[in-house]
Amino acid sequence: MLKHRCQFLCVCCFCFVTLALSWSQNKQFDQVMNYEGSSDLVDLQYHMGPVLASPIKLYIIWYGHWNPTQQATIRDFLYSLSSSSSSYPSVSDWWRTVRLYTDQTGSNITGNIVLSGEFYDSKYSHGGYLSRLAVQSVIKTAVTAYPRALPLNPHNGLYLVLTSPDVRVQDFCRAVCGFHYFTFPNIVGVTVPYAWVGHSGTQCPGVCAYPFAWPNYSGKPPPSTNGGNNIMRAPNGDVGADGMISVIAHELAEVSSNPLVNAWYAGDDPTAPTEIADLCVGVYGTGGGGGYVGKVYKDSWGSGYNVNGVKGRRFLVQWVWNPVKKRCFGPNAAD
Ligand SMILES: *[C@@H]1O[C@H](CO)[C@@H](O)[C@H](O)[C@H]1NC(C)=O
Ligand SMILES: *[C@@H]1O[C@H](CO)[C@@H](O)[C@H](O)[C@H]1NC(C)=O
């Protein structure tokens, strides 16, 4: 087990490198992973482990220097996951696809996700650069802080570590935009699932805030952008935060369906699983994939979105694999 620890730390990533590479190499766009209509290629399997079936208590750790506007956008997205008050298609309608996954007792993933605590690590407790493992130390710091520690909740807690635009994280921008895993008892005291997502606004919007930015170092803009002139506008006005929303959605879907990395994934290699959101990276609507976001809505400012949230918010969230339809799916699907 120890032997695999390092390898395990390298899994469960959200990876846009395929996209970026295909642009930089100026190759055929159809090389990018897109399984929307090709279920034969996908061998998503259940490996008998738990899913997050109990109501989730979500705890945010804001690491670094955050502006309140960015925080409000992200918070409203998280509130939207369980809200029934937004009009269709909503964020909670999007989560319905995630809820189709069950464990071996037949329990579905929960639809109840409650933001239950926030911790401000504005002093960069573990520095301006975090290794993957150091993210667990950040959680440790938050649950042991005095006086306002986050609860350490091994029963139904889920910890979301969000790093501000200036914080560098191991593999951030090069290989990952976010990842999920579970804590080790010798660091945090218990095993709890967690996810990390970085704000890519200054470091790599073209990699991690697609499609609100594109990797312009690569030379060739994606085909749907009219030569790079029609980059999609971010619905909440912050490319980095709006880009984070989809990555947060991606990681929440995956940590819920594969919290201990032994439940739902495709591929033979448990150290490099392809999970339910990995299968649909870059797909936001019907016809998406291969550099096309697919059919999404535009608001009156020309910003792209595909789901509604609380307080009239709109978000653009990638699709996830639907195990019943056996294809990538979201509530804004045309069929
Ligand atoms: C639970 O999952 C099963 C199997 O995917 C599905 O048929 C059912 O509709 C799900 N229930 C809910 C509440 O999503
Ligand atoms: C890429 O975009 C960044 C930020 O928008 C800009 O500063 C830079 O000059 C651009 N590079 C190229 C080659 O267009």
From TrEMBL:
Top-level taxon of the source organism: Eukaryota
Main location: secreted
A GO term from the CC aspect: apoplast
Signal peptide positions (record): 1-22
Pfam families: Phi_1
Keyword terms, alphabetized: Apoplast, Secreted, Signal
Subcellular location: Secreted, Extracellular space, Apoplast
Family statement drawn from the similarity comment of this UniProt entry: Belongs to the EXORDIUM family.
Matches recorded under PANTHER family: PROTEIN EXORDIUM-LIKE 5 (PTHR31279), PROTEIN EXORDIUM-LIKE 7 (PTHR31279:SF18)
The protein's name in its UniProt record: Protein EXORDIUM-like 7
